[in-house]
Design a protein that fits this description.
Rossmann fold; 2 domains; 6-stranded parallel beta sheet; 17% strand; globular
């Protein structure tokens, strides 16, 4: 895809450096990219306020976007691309539309609309809206279905043929994930599986908040978690070192997670609690085991059988290149 002479104004949250990889790939395709974090700050307290107490940070958000408007005013753009909108208010999207009337405005959602009330209010303001969540796509005619993508590190992990672990897991410790993972671990430990589990909290403070206010974390021990974000290379190394990788989706989610796509790219077997994976062209019951969150049953035969290769076209379909082409074509 040739984006020479195309100018893109991109807003995206800081998310394990995925935003930087998107920018770099757009630059490689020839585009000029002006990138801004969708949030005015990634300070823990600011991020929490944006989600739970948005009125507290409204002045900060307003000032942040006024400064951006001053920087980009007078420029022209072919595309205004907003990924996982959380902070922007309706007035900001309206000003973008008025300020750059010739630009195509595109919104991409990495979370269900259930978690993105601000985005839900402005869908009609965009020329195109994409989401990984099939339920949101079915319920809103403005949203097109678009699965997530993987980075090259995960495709490279497929080359590793010597395993350190039987089963691996990497993920953020949110909602019911910790409780579900404990149940899965008990089943696997009965089969003497060697596990590598990295359950991530944004901070120690966040961990203690969950201990206090979330029933699922009662009895959780600090040693069960990691508090430093892992790079794509580090996560891919765990996937490459594991014969099987666990995937646990969020409640209210009807699409597959980005982790599902990354496991696909690494060509590893998968244990998942997400039954929606049956609807995808890469589903193979010999490679993917769907289990219940409440009562996970994992047959020993699945744990020992080999991975079955898929067609190269399927792996390519979920690459970052393919993802960007579908958004910008």
């Amino acid at each position: 895809m040739d984006l020479t002479n195309k100018r893109i104004l991109l807003f995206a949250p800081a998310f394990f450096n995925y935003e930087k990889r998107i920018v770099n790939r757009l630059l490689e395709m020839g585009a000029t990219v002006d990138f801004y974090d969708e949030r005015p700050s990634n300070n823990l307290f600011v991020k929490a306020a944006i989600r739970y107490f948005p009125l507290l940070v409204r002045p900060l958000v307003a000032k942040y976007y006024r400064n951006i408007a001053a920087e980009v005013g007078g420029r022209t753009y072919n595309y205004i691309l907003i990924i996982n909108m959380e902070t922007m208010r309706k007035i900001i999207t309206r000003r973008l539309r008025r300020g750059f009337p010739e630009a195509e405005m595109i919104l991409v959602l990495w979370d269900p609309l259930y978690y993105k009330p601000r985005a839900k209010q402005v869908l009609k303001r965009f020329d195109r809206v994409f989401s990984f969540d099939e339920g949101d796509c079915r319920q809103n005619r403005h949203i097109r279905f678009l699965p997530d993508f993987y980075l090259e590190e995960y495709a490279n992990a497929a080359r590793v043929k010597e395993y350190k672990y039987d089963v691996g897991f990497v993920g953020t410790a949110h909602t019911d994930r910790y409780r579900t993972l404990r149940k899965i671990k008990k089943v696997l430990e009965k089969d003497n599986m060697k596990l590598c589990v990295k359950l991530y909290f944004y901070s120690v403070f966040n961990y203690y908040l969950c201990r206090l206010f979330h029933w699922d974390f009662v009895g959780a021990k600090r040693k069960d978690f990691v508090f430093s974000p892992m790079t794509a290379a580090e996560i891919a190394d765990i996937y490459g070192s594991s014969r099987i990788v666990i995937d646990i989706e969020s409640p209210h989610q009807q699409g597959i997670t980005m982790r599902t796509i990354e496991i696909l790219a690494a060509r590893r077997k998968m244990i998942t609690t997400n039954a929606n994976v049956r609807n995808y062209d890469f589903y193979n019951e010999n490679n993917i085991l769907i289990i219940s969150k409440e009562n996970p049953i994992i047959p020993s035969a699945f744990l020992t059988s080999p991975y079955e290769e898929l067609s190269e076209e399927i792996y390519e379909k979920y690459s970052l290149n393919s993802w960007l082409k579908q958004i910008l074509m």
